[in-house]
Amino acid sequence: MHINSKLPNVGTTIFATMSKMAKDYNALNLSQGFPDFPVSPELIEGVYHYMKAGFNQYPPMTGMPQLRERIAEKIEKSYGTKVNVETEITLTAGAIEAINATITSLVNKGDEVIIMDPAYDAYEPIITLNGGITIPVSLKQPNFAIDWETVKEKVNAKTRMIIINSPHNPTGAMIEANDLAILAEITRDTNIIVLSDEVYEHIVFDGRAHESVLKHEELRQRSVATFSFGKTFHATGWRIGYMVAPDWISAEVRKVHQYMAFTVHTPSQLAIADYLENADHYNNLGAFYQQKRDLFLDLIKDSRFESLPSHGTYFQLLSYKNISEKPDLEMAEWLTKEKGIASIPISVFYDTKEDNKMLRFCFAKSEETLTKAAEILCAI
Fold first, then answer.
1. In whole angstroms, what is the distance from residue 148 CA to residue 32 CA?
2. Core-most of 16, 36, 191, 296, by most CB within 10 Å?
3. Which of 351, 333, 353, 352 is nearest to 343 (CA)?
4. Residue 288's domain spans which residues?
């Protein structure tokens, strides 16, 4: 039997590949972005409480009302924006399902979607699955800033969507208020939808502020913003995220969402709703991860690796250009197999597979793990 693949050039994601390699070679896994420390006992107990209380059946397709209300309150506190609980907030099976449902519902065959390279590796396959055409625009080094002049050149009558991601995976770069102003100008009086991937919204460093599209009134009227409780509350395996969009967009995306996942785990939604009542649980996240970033950078300061600025996320880019001429995928495999530490090569995030001799390391790890990792890197 022959299968006519819809994704003939796509294999297993690099994150799964490197995590498996880390396990096979008993290496420290700083590749896939997940914490190696526990979820809050309070949050765990909350889930257990609601499971015992009998909240184990389907919640509403859009999410439990209690959680949507807490999300609306959080958005108003964080960004000064009021959103409609009933029509503008939808709980999803992780932010990835929100991204998938958004692209699936809004991108048709032949539509063009502009993404910023290096880009999270899920965007392009989802666009392709829906008959869209990915238009990559390379971020400007060394700060990985958006090249807005090139974006303007790429926009045409076929442009249906522009995807932005801040704080940015894999680089840790962040969008500024001026970037949103330029994006608003570019999309004004067009049919372009903005998809804003904001899963690391609370993981920002050095006194910076996350510039959400929800803060920009004009952009908000044409944008879908996606978020992740898994990233915020160290529970990536729970697969609970949400999207925020104006009612006319939400109504269309919900049509797809109801047949893609329909809903997410009821007791976890209720437990998260309770947990969100204490704003410290997310407002202190930046300081928590900045301490880990700073520790990791201090521990490797005498290594031959060169660190690039990371202003957000829990990822740190390291250049090995002073160490080896190996291609980055080969270097990542060598580090895993021979040195016992797994990372992600940055070329996989580029449409052109551009290789700048950079690797991404996840520092959402315990102090013990980061210390061991630094010992390995400093010995190279």
1. 30
2. 296
3. 333
4. 14-32+284-378
- One domain for residues 27 and 163: no
Q: How many CA atoms lie within 13 A of 235 on its CB side?
A: 20
pLDDT in tens, 152-174: 999 999 999 999 999 999 999 99
- Stretch 229-243: mean pLDDT: 97
This prediction's pTM: 0.96
CA 250 – CA 264 distance, rounded (Å): 17
pLDDT in tens, 275-326: 999 999 999 999 999 999 999 999 999 999 999 999 999 999 999 999 999 9
13 vs 97: CA distance, rounded Å = 16
Pair (268, 299) in one structural domain? no
Same domain for 77 and 180? Answer: yes
Provide the token pair at 236. 């990536």
Note the pLDDT tens digit of each residue in 261-280.
Answer: 999 999 999 999 999 999 99
Please give the Cα distance from 26 to 322 (Å, whole number): 27
